[in-house]
């Protein structure tokens, strides 16, 4: 898999990048976070056990780098929002069922734990769906205090089963209305947008349709565009299309793309790399894969395009909820609040390249702000986890998923 | 009951035909415990209304999944026999050069978790994989498709045929080879002698191994998932992840259907197994070795290609990951710790011990006291093997949380539950091997001890048990090996913070830190390989 060949290059690329730039404070923050990117080409099939496929794979930060953010030099590094220091203290033991991977959020969780001498956090990393079912099976006896999920769907499911408690307005109010549960039972902590990565040597932005339904008829993409149908985020996107445009239109779209000669990849990081390499000229990926390639190769001919107000532009969130079995619900809620702190939001922006959800922290890299995005209006994100009919549909048109 | 009570067997068992009550109750209790988690599956499935159930089960997807699963099981089992029996014959009964080496090399694929094998094959032979990248300068744009049925069947066969290989070897080593010589003196051709003498003698061993292959294929999730081939486990998983109540219903129904298929396989095996091995009172005698002559080279080529493909590909890919991943400053929490290896060995050893002990009464009863009840008990012990780990894990979480009270919340019963899950899933391996052990020991030996004034228990302990020990220990080692590789139930039932090699491999791989997955994977393979060597060394101590 050629994408893995870049791991060595990415390492040197990252170092060079660190050495070269000393510009704005935001830039320095990026460097101090020790952002490197690398390999995730198999992530699409590796997370067959995790249940979700949209974890950004391989960004890493070291404890010491991240520790500096919170311990002292806060002034020029945290862009905005409330610091953990200004939040209520945490103590005791908190069990976090984390559907987000240890490699991604492990550092953040140890950081929070290290902040308070009397706090023990017991993280349990499994697939989001698996954890939801575990909580349901465990019933009243669940040790879970907090459920930290990779997508809104599993949070919504847990809420519908009556297993979450309402968070205070103080917490949900930290993010925009569309990024938390209307009843306040879960709150988004970071976001990911669906995008069209394109090769700037082949196309200019105006060559990319702004309507996702126009792609099958766009001959400029003939045999030159890639997708990763086995990937969770892609399936969520098709699910959105099914909800917004109906089953028949979605089926035609899928068939049209196959007819156009769409190239199949195992995951979306591989697509972003292939576009940067000119192997294909465009694709369908989550936004952070593009940023990750650009972090390694600043001059790669790779840019991000968005469709407008349709399934191609959905914006899903990772988020957290307090489980009704939490020993101390207030403490659990305060842990969730910490995920919305300036430090945590900066962490998401710089290490996972996700969209921070508190308005004061901006996304990293060459991305529009959340306000400039055009996700489809009135799409209930919690519906996107109902992938079963989507899988049926994809199998029906001959895609092996 | 299968027509297996032939006259020979009746003669052998005539002395102890009455079912001993205590032993039957004990075996029955073990079997009941093993079947217990199925109640949860059944209860879940029954909650779906009959109309919905029929509707769901007759959907096109469901039917295709059923056909796919059946086809995969049939092909993998058939191919395993086709490879394993000749290979076993070559390594036992011919003058194949380097026989010991080939025995070890051909058994070793069993130590590679099939999902790691599948990954390696995709990395090596997939589109834009290592091989294609290597061949690209030569103008080779595309390799034959690895995904789908072909890839799934290939990988499953490569990593499960050793079940047949090992059991067939054991049978070939212990059968009285003079029978073949006798047939030859009766002017039978070599092939005819094989067909009429050897095949009937090794058939129980071959079918026992094939049963493990079939049930493993049916319950494996990783390989079909990676190879993108829709089978029961993969669809059950997708349904569970779709997080709609509808999806849960279908998952439960499919699990139930999976269990039914298991019963069918068990029934088929029971019929095919045929008359059991002849219990001998003497050591096996080796007949003359078959001289390969000009067939030496094709034979070596077969051994080399099977072992090479199954071992070199994953080890090569793991090494590549290790070298490439070595320099990156990956997440600190993914650093490998030896504690993971100790944890893995610890739980696997306990599971192996418990499974060995549980298998003893069941196997004894099944061999020495043929009856409908003992047959049922033995068959029941196999059912858990085909239940996917995720389903088993969730069922046990349910029971643990419902009835474990505070102990569950404090995670005190997770360890026992985890061990229980392993035993339920892998008990058949211990039962099969122990059963074969009992078959090799004539009951007349313990009868003799009885006439010398020993109590039944003493006769068993002093005479039978030592003779059965190799089979028993071999079975326990097999459980040990398989437990080390188990992932889904381990993830669900391990106490928080308790990490094993595979859970660590999983975390590292899922986040794309392949360099961090390589070390635990290699450690896993090495530890497994050592226990495999122990198991093979035990062959040396054939029943005397």
Commentary on this structure:
The complex is a heterodimer of chains A (401) and B (544). By secondary structure, chain A is α/β, with parallel strands linked by helices. The radius of gyration of chain A is 20 Å and the shape is globular. Chain A starts with 5 loop residues before the first helix and ends in a 5-residue tail after the last helix. Chain B is mostly helical. Helices cover 75% and strands 0% of the residues of chain B. Chain B starts with 6 loop residues before the first helix and ends in a 6-residue tail after the last helix. At the A-B interface, helix 1, helix 3, helix 5, strand 2 and helix 6 of A face helix 6, helix 11, helix 12, helix 13 and helix 14 of B.
Topology overview:
The complex is a heterodimer of chains A (401) and B (544).
Chain A: H1 6-20, H2 25-32, H3 43-46, H4 63-70, E1 92-98, H5 102-115, E2 119-125, H6 128-138, E3 146-149, H7 152-160, E4 164-165, H8 169-172, E5 187-199, E6 225-227, H9 232-245, H10 247-260, E7 263-264, H11 268-277, E8 282-283, E9 285-286, H12 287-296, E10 302-305, E11 315-323, H13 329-339, H14 342-352, E12 355-356, H15 388-396
Parallel strand pairs in A: 1-2, 1-3, 6-7, 6-8
Antiparallel strand pairs in A: 3-11, 4-11, 5-9, 5-10, 5-11, 5-12
Chain B: H1 7-13, H2 21-47, H3 50-57, H4 60-93, H5 99-107, H6 114-125, H7 130-135, H8 149-174, H9 178-185, H10 190-219, H11 222-226, H12 232-241, H13 245-272, H14 296-325, H15 338-368, H16 372-383, H17 389-403, H18 405-409, H19 414-440, H20 443-451, H21 456-485, H22 488-493, H23 501-510, H24 514-538
């Amino acid at each position: 898999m050629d994408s893995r060949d870049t791991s060595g290059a990415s390492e040197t690329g990252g170092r060079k990048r660190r050495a070269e730039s000393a510009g704005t404070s935001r830039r320095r923050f990026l460097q101090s976070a020790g952002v490197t990117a690398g390999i995730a080409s198999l992530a699409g099939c590796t997370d067959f056990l995790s249940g979700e496929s949209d974890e950004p794979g391989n960004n890493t930060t070291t404890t010491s780098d991240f520790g500096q953010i919170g311990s002292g030099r806060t002034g020029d590094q945290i862009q905005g929002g409330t610091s953990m220091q200004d939040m209520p203290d945490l103590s005791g033991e908190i069990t976090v069922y984390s559907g987000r991977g240890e490699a991604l959020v492990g550092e953040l969780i140890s950081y929070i734990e290290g902040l308070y001498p009397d706090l023990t956090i017991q993280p349990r990393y499994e697939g989001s769906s698996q954890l939801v079912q575990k909580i349901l099976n465990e019933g009243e006896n669940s040790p879970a205090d907090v459920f930290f999920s990779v997508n809104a769907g599993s949070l919504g499911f847990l809420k519908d089963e009556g297993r979450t408690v309402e968070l205070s307005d103080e917490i949900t109010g930290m993010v925009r209305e569309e990024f938390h549960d209307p009843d306040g039972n879960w709150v988004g902590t970071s976001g990911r947008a669906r995008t069209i990565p394109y090769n700037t040597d082949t196309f200019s932005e105006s060559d990319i349709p702004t309507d996702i339904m126009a792609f099958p008829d766009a001959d400029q993409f003939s045999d030159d565009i890639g997708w990763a149908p086995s990937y969770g985020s892609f399936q969520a996107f098709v699910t959105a299309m099914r909800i917004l445009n109906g089953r028949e239109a979605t089926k035609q779209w899928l068939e049209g793309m196959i007819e156009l000669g769409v190239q199949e990849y195992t995951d979306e990081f591989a697509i972003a790399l292939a576009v940067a390499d000119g192997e294909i000229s465009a694709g369908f990926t989550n936004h952070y894969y593009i940023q990750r390639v650009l972090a390694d190769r600043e001059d790669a001919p790779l840019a991000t395009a968005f469709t407008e107000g349709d399934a191609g532009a959905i914006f899903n969130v990772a988020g957290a909820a307090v489980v009704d079995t939490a020993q101390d619900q207030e403490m659990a809620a305060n842990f969730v609040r910490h995920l919305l702190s300036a430090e945590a939001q900066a962490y998401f922006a710089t290490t996972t390249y996700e969209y921070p959800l508190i308005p004061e922290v901006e996304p990293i890299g060459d991305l529009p702000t959340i306000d400039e995005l055009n996700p489809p209006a009135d799409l209930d994100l919690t519906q996107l986890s109902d992938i079963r009919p989507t899988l049926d549909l994809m199998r029906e048109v001959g895609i092996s998923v | 009951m299968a027509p297996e009570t032939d006259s020979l067997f009746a003669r052998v068992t005539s002395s102890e035909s009455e079912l001993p009550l205590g032993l039957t109750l004990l075996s029955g209790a073990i079997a009941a415990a093993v079947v217990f988690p199925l109640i949860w599956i059944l209860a879940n499935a029954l909650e779906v209304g009959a109309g919905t159930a029929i509707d769901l089960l007759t959907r096109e997807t469901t039917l295709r999944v059923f056909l796919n699963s059946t086809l995969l099981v049939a092909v993998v089992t058939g191919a395993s026999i086709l490879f394993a029996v000749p290979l076993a014959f070559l390594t036992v009964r011919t003058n194949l050069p380097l026989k010991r080496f080939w025995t070890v090399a051909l058994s070793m694929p069993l130590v590679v978790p099939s999902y790691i094998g599948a990954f390696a094959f995709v990395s090596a032979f997939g589109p834009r994989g290592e091989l294609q990248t290597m061949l690209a300068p030569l103008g080779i744009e595309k390799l034959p498709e690895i995904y789908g049925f072909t890839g799934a069947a290939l990988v499953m066969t490569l990593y499960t045929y050793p079940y047949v290989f090992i059991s067939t070897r054991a049978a070939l080593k212990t059968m009285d080879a003079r029978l073949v010589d006798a047939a030859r003196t009766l002017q039978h051709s070599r092939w005819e002698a094989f067909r009429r003498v050897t095949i009937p003698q090794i058939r129980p061993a071959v079918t026992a191994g094939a049963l493990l292959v079939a049930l493993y294929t049916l319950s494996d999730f990783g390989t079909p998932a990676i190879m993108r081939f829709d089978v029961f486990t993969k669809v059950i998983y997708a349904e569970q992840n779709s997080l709609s109540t509808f999806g849960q219903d279908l998952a439960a129904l499919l699990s139930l259907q999976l269990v039914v298929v298991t019963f069918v396989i068990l029934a088929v095996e029971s019929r095919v197994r045929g008359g059991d091995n002849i219990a001998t009172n003497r050591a096996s005698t080796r007949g003359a070795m078959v001289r390969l002559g000009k067939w030496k080279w094709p034979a070596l080529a077969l051994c080399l290609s099977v072992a090479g493909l199954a071992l070199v590909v994953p080890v090569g890919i793991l090494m590549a990951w290790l070298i490439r991943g070595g320099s990156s400053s990956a997440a600190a929490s993914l650093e490998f710790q030896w504690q993971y290896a100790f944890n893995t060995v610890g739980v696997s050893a306990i599971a192996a011990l418990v499974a060995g002990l549980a298998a003893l009464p069941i196997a004894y009863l099944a061999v020495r006291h043929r009856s409908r009840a003992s047959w049922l008990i033995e068959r029941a012990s196999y059912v858990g093997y085909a239940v996917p780990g995720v389903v088993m894990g969730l069922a046990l979480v349910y029971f643990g949380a419902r009835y474990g009270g505070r102990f569950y919340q404090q995670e005190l019963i997770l360890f026992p539950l985890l061990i229980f899950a392993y035993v339920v899933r892998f008990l058949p391996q211990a039962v099969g091997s122990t059963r074969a052990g009992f078959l090799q020991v004539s009951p007349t030996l313990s009868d003799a001890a009885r006439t010398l004034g020993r109590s039944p228990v003493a006769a068993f302990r002093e005479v039978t048990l030592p003779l059965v020990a190799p089979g028993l220990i071999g079975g326990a080692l097999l459980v040990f090996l398989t437990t080390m590789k188990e992932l889904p139930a381990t993830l669900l039932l391990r106490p928080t913070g308790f990490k094993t090699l595979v859970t660590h491999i999983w975390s590292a791989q899922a986040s794309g830190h392949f360099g961090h997955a390589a070390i635990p994977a290699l450690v896993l393979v090495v530890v497994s390989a050592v226990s495999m060597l122990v198991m093979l060394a035990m062959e040396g101590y054939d029943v005397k």
